[in-house]
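Worked problem 6 (solution included).
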Amino acid sequence: MKAVPKVNTEGLYLEDTLVDDAFSGVVPFYVGIEPQLPADPEETEQGLAPEDEQAEETPEPEIAGYIVGISVTPGLFMPRFDLAAWEAYQDAIDAALDEFQQAYDEWSALPEDERGDMPHAESPPMPDLWIEGLTPEEIEEITRPQPQEPTELELLTVVVEGIQQQNSQLHEVVVSSGEELSAVKTASAEQKMTLSALGSEQVKQDLSTLDLKQQNNVIGAELVRKDISILDLYMQGQVLGQMLAALELKLLANGTGGESNVQQ
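Solution. The predicted structure is:
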């Protein structure tokens, strides 16, 4: 089996189909009918019914396209099989065969001693049957440079670059956060030192206040002692006053004679 091209009725390539290795030439296939490729021309002729009987039994099928036993010429944008050129080529082959047959008949009719070399059949050269199915304008349109879709590798590269950029930004955020954290730690340490200094100063002030309180207590105690001493002196002054008053009374009594009276 081998793969050969199928074309539509205009000769435009449709797809490949599998045929027998011995297949060659061009045969039609019909709408809704699987193509039956002849394996042997004699078998095909024997299997055919008279045309009149076939015409009476079934309507003539509609040709859908052709199976072409000639490989597609590479490099064509839209391969098209030139059916007209193929028919002309077949006519040229038939004409060459007719010419050969006529020459052979004439050669055979001559006496053997006058025949000379037997004529040979010469087949005409096969033309380029596969042609371009697009116009030059259509070819120019499809060959115009188009924006290329990014490849999978390019898309992956973009994704990797995006991830790297995100990592870089995250790194910057982490570094910035680290600096801010360091600044906060420094500020916290300074605050701790300030608090410690304030605490020390407060302790000093508390000690000074305590010392002052102790001094006030001492001064208070001294004042109390002074007050007691003053009170004691005051009481002693009163006692001395009373004694002086008593002495004055005695003196008055002695001066007036009242002392004896007093004694009596």
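Discussion: The chain is about 60% helix and 10% strand.
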